[in-house]
Amino acid sequence: MRTHRLRLGHIVYSNCFPVHARLLDQPRAGDPSIVEGVPSYLNGLLERGAIDVAPCSSIEFARHAERYRVLPELVIGARGPVQSILLLGRRAPDALHGRRVALPTASATSVVLLKVLLRLRWRVQPEFFAFDQAHEDPFARGADAALFIGDVALRPALYPAVPLRWDLGREWWEWRGLPFAFAVWQARDDVDPERLRALHAALLESRRYGLGSRAELAERYAAHFGLPAALLDAYWASLSYELDAPMRAGLESFYALAAEIGELGRAPELRWLE
Fold this sequence. Notes:
Layout: E1 7-11, H1 17-25, E2 33-37, H2 39-48, E3 53-57, H3 58-63, E4 68-78, E5 85-89, E6 100-104, H4 109-121, E7 127-131, E8 145-149, H5 150-154, E9 164-167, H6 168-176, E10 180-188, H7 193-212, H8 214-225, H9 229-238, E11 239-243, H10 245-260
Parallel strand pairs: 1-2, 6-7, 6-8
Antiparallel strand pairs: 3-10, 4-10, 4-11, 5-8, 5-9
Helix pairs in contact: 1-7, 4-6, 8-9
């Protein structure tokens, strides 16, 4: 019986590209099949078994920890400002109690991170509503503040008339003193571990290629992402792609706080591919 190629989810935002760079830029026979989508879409595909592995929202693992294993060493994270997770508003976060705050449907982890910050750092409980950041203006719907993620948040002309903005990576760093893991590579429990280990090795090789060729790739893929090459290169340089001990501590702290505000039943233990 012929075994299908592993199906690898790929986040369409530029933040995922450095890890998958070799697979996308120099594909080879035997590479996984690539399935693209925004984070929330990939979360659903992995849950339904439509893909085998994906850099899914880190909160997705916490919500279904019994189903998934985390591939070591790989993360989309930040050790301070992340640039692409922005809260825009007409008033300060600590003045948003009872106010309308818009949350993008494309996100999962960033939405929970914002809720944690609002409840526990800024001590407010707004009224939330969902919006499609690619097609809707949340401020036209009466939002006092709105969260934007990914390449949309990187655009220099993002709602210039809205006066205030906060980088959630910076806010987390200043509050907790820890890195933040926005996405981790997760695999379904029913996927053959030997095949996953081979994919993991390919992903580490692909990351080396992506980070080693960062400036060149930024020049070649700037038009694809609709961003200036210099901005794209600087953005990739500012992100963290290594799931080391401090990043893991940040992830575990996030899970504990998400459980504290009721977004998780309990903080899960990380289950690793071995």
